[in-house]
Design brief:
189 residues, alpha+beta, six-stranded antiparallel barrel
């Protein structure tokens, strides 16, 4: 593959992963930095991709540490690995939070199935839950929406790395603020 094909292939993999729950790139590692300057990494689910603009959509609870970290410092790294054909995608850029009152969050919420909505109806992420009572109070769907947020990640760079039996390959791509490719090059793995 040439550089243009590598770039197109990587973004096609991400786009497909947003609709295929079996794709290796459906679950990505989102890395941010906490208030103490410590790196934080967690798995997130890829929900939508805009290839032309180099955007990824991720959903989260606005009470989560990642929401607070990204609100304070939007620079993040997203990492994914596909076992076939042994490709790592490392994207660097910024994430823009869209809170529960935003149009973006309202639209995304309207498309979620009830089973996914229910994940936003409990207590804040990381809080102790103690013993669950036999008849646990159910939080209304609207209350869950109050904790639902959308992160829109805009890629500045893509570092593509393919493991091979011999001759590993690596390429780096850069994009402008509109998503247009501004540079691409092969680099030493």
């Amino acid at each position: 593959m040439n550089l243009a094909e590598v770039d197109a292939s990587a973004w096609a993999e991400l786009e497909a992963a947003a609709v295929d729950s079996q794709s290796a790139f459906r679950y990505l590692n989102l890395c941010s930095v906490d208030a103490d300057g410590r790196p934080q990494a967690r798995m997130v689910v890829l929900r939508r991709v805009d290839v032309a603009r180099r955007l990824l959509e991720i959903h989260t609870d606005v009470r989560s540490p990642k929401w607070q970290e990204i609100s304070a410092d939007p620079l993040v790294t997203i990492l994914g690995y596909g076992p076939q054909p042994k490709v790592q995608l490392r994207l660097q850029g910024s994430a823009e939070p869209h809170g529960p009152a935003s149009e973006r969050a309202a639209e995304a919420w309207s498309l979620l199935p009830g089973s996914t909505r229910s994940t936003y109806m409990g207590g804040p992420p990381g809080d102790d839950i103690g013993e669950r009572p036999a008849s646990e109070a159910v939080i209304a769907d609207a209350d869950g929406r109050a904790f639902f947020g959308v992160l829109i990640f805009r890629a500045d760079t893509l570092d593509w790395f393919q493991l091979r039996h011999a001759d590993n390959r690596r390429a780096v791509f850069a994009y402008d603020h509109l998503g247009a490719l501004t540079s691409s090059r092969w680099v030493n793995p």
